[in-house]
Amino acid sequence: MRYFFLVSLVLIVTLAIGCSTPQPVTQQSEMVDAADTVDVVKPVLPADQEVTWIVPDRPEQFLRPRTWNLEHQKIWVRFDYAEQAVIGQTELFLTSFSSVNEQLILDAKTMKIHAVTDVISGNALEVIQDSATITIPLPVTYATGDTLIIHVDYTAYPPSRGLYFVNADGSDPNKPTQIWTLGQPEDNSFWLPTIDHPAERATQETWISVPDRFQTLSNGALIDSRILPGDSLRTDYWQMPLPHAPYLFALAVGEYSILERFREGVVLKYYVEPSFEPYAEIIYRDTDDMIRFFSEKLNVPYPWSFYAQAPVHDFIASGMENTTASFYFNNIQITERQSMDVDFQDLIAHELIHQWFGNLVTCKDWANLPINEGFANYFETLYRNHRNGFDASQWKSLTDRNSYFNEAQRFRRPIITNRYNEPEDMYDRHTYEKTGLVLRMLHHYVGDNHWWGALNGFLEANRFGAVDWTDVMVAFEKETGMVLKPFFEQWFTSIGHPDIHVTTWYDEGLGYVRLQQVQNLTHQPVFDLNIDIHYFDEIGENHVRTVQFNRLDSTYVFEDPTGKLGEMVVDPHRIVLAEYRETLSYDDLISRLAHPSVPLRYEALMTIRNKPMDASTVQVLLDAFAFEQSPPLRNLILTVLTPHLSKDHEEFIHGLTSDNEPYFRVRMRAADISLALFGLEENYYLNEILHDPSYYVEKHVISLFENNK
Predict the structure, then answer these.
(1) Share of the chain above pLDDT 70, in %
(2) How many whole angstroms separate alpha carbon 7 and alpha carbon 344?
(3) pTM for this one?
(4) Which of 41, 81, 202, 697 is the most exposed place for a label (fewest CB within 10 A)?
């Protein structure tokens, strides 16, 4: 859902992906300041440091039972900018689920209800209102399948929930006047009377009346736009012909330029503020390739025919996947020069894949929100692998692991749980990163063909439906013929993850790998794991042996008849969501700096940085830097080297220019090192990269000159 956690090569916004009263996002300047970004998520605690975590003590939550089915909703809105109010009308077409239905309950918060009318009879209906709902007693009893159409005339005063006014009075010259909505989890009912339930499904029509200088955006297609007789406002009519959940109903109003394209059978609309119009295709680059990739791999075409993307100011998230219309925080707007170094690929991919996982198929309650968000998280990784290569996807998985493990130092809960105080409690690293990593494990376990086949079956079987975690399990069991309940219960409904100590040794022509599960078993199980052990044979070929590890302590033996058995490495790509503890020699650490696995190279660097370092180790790291292809790992190597560099390394430091170092963060760090070692006076390197092609490097170096005069 809403993308609150944005950990990319661009910037980190305050934790928040997803929905509900989302956590606020730190406001950014108009230009994304890459100097404030980081490459490496804080690593987990060292093995000898005690970790104390809790299981949150939260009450069980149950959504109100659905006694009516919302089939279709019409929405008419205009706005009182001075009062920051929504002047609205809505018409709901419903059919009864219950055999004896004598009332209708609608979610309607912070609003004044002027009138409720039975459209079929024309009669006014009684309304009983509390702080969150309106209850409408019905004059007759409705049976299963009976139809009810009601009309509600209301004024809503959203208290910074659901619908948001930005610079409503136009007093801030540096901020546009805008209106936007964010409905997940149950916030649309702050501005619209509806059945605000994730399992609900309805088609929708929306009429938005605004001053003529504004553009609008809502779900579906813009059918008509005109100033009606006797009205000073223009009314835009949007139509959403396919059913979707009410929390995905959305609208935005602002002064935008719109670039329209037709790609892969989909009408794409790129909304940007007018000053960014020349960069619209750069900002939303790869959207059409993402649609093609997701559609082909899932064998399910993009479901909706239309897809718009728009930035909004003061957004409380990084992104939100409203059906056919994703909204983003305004700093997604970048110039062509900025785009040399940064992009929002993960964010755009995350919101786009939600059009399948979350919008076409939706979680039936907030306990199952991880079904929406876990798939979106993992598809960021899958698209990185497609677009940027294996190393980039490994780095994404690595940062996801560290993010989850850091949270797990404080608390651990089942991925699927209805124990929360507010739905917003579900917007954490368990819902996003942990679930994505568990899906990565599942992908590896069942194999690529079964993975995509199961996802196709899941989407087709549950199209326009609401699901829980067992529906995912059923799809994978049907596709693979495997019994997967133990896997799903272990990872989705149990707490925690394994902590594995790894020991390897050789003796009398045999290689040994000992694995020990040492996690606290008070709330966590002994995990049943399938772990790959990689090793090289006597002629240098890599082999993989998959072992089942379902005990506290197991040792696995490898034959070594020639005495040339190469290094045995447990789960080098860190597929299994486990914290691995190994005691490695200096030679082992150095060897791993050249390992094909990004996580192993990262772990080796993080270990080396905490050890005493002599000149030979510095040289080893300089050599590793020269061969390292992963940009964030090059930056990490330079970070580890920084305290140990001297004027003797001037050639290396000052050689880090745009001609031979493509990663802007490395050049920024080199500027800091150069300043520390050589000062400002006659520093030819700083003067040279003062004119660096990177906007961020130039800005950083200017700040160095200004702050060190």
Answers:
(1) 91
(2) 10
(3) 0.93
(4) 81
